Amino acid sequence: MRYGEADRILHLYTPARGRVGAIAKGVRRARSRFGGRLEPFFRIQAELHEGRGELLTVTGAQTIDPHARLRTDARALDAAARACDAVGRMFETGEPHPGVFNLLCRQLALLDAQAAPDGGSGAAGRGGSLSFRLKLLLAAGLAPQLGACANCGEPEHLVGFSGAAGGVVCAACEAGSFALGEEAHGFMADALGKSLTEAPVAGEQALGQVERAVAATLEHHAHVRLMPAFAAA
Predict the structure, then answer these.
(1) Do both 135 and 47 map to the same domain?
(2) 57, 23 in Cβ contact below 8 A?
(3) DSSP SS3 for 127
């Protein structure tokens, strides 16, 4: 965000220090030494000076990957913003999570690779975004219980999902839960077990149930509320 006459405050996610704030002085001037290297969704190698204040100061930056194709696809650009927002909200401290950093890098690279001027689907679609969020739950230690009822351990007749219980529930324990169909259940299991490039496919009703399950898990166990995973056309 803009600060003062020519500065900009940046939110950076790093492998060794988690989320950090930094100020880039003079970056909005036409002759800034940073050029166009400090833009949203860029992967950079940054040199940061730590002073007495809360904000670090950017003293150098080199571009590793600008993800330039994102700018040609509004849907991919929106998905990138939602992915970064999810990481920023779920992992908002300075605690390092190199796995989360690598996951975000892979998601941005995948969005960039699949971006298309005519608005392709792939990782920018709702399924790809939800697969990413499920992996964030796993990284946060909040992966939902899917193999058996989260209340009683019953392995069959799993008909609902409970955020409070932390996973699927059987017919005998469904009080306070919401319906979770077989397609949604299968999507979640596949998404957690496969790479981002192998994001499973499901219908809109099933994806709606998955998104509700992710939201319920986060709100109950992490007190975090995310924006919707996907912007409808």
Answers:
(1) no
(2) yes
(3) helix
**Measured CA distances, 52 to 11, 18, 21, 55, 58 (Å):** 18, 19, 13, 8, 14
Q: Is residue 231 part of a domain?
A: no
- Output the six-digit token pair for 182: 């077989």
Same domain, 95 and 46: no
Indicate the SS3 state at residue 19.
strand
**Over the stretch 7-64, which tens digit does the pLDDT of each residue have?**
999 999 999 999 999 999 999 888 888 878 999 999 999 999 998 888 999 999 999 9
Q: Is this model's pTM higher than 0.90 or not? A: yes
Residues comprising the chain, all counted? 233
Contact criterion met (CB below 8 Å) for 98 and 85: no
Cα distances from 85 to residues 45, 57, 103, 135, 154, in angstroms, run 21, 22, 14, 15, 36
Q: Are 3 and 15 spatial neighbours (Cβ–Cβ below 8 Å)? A: no
Answer yes or no: do 50 and 125 share one domain. no
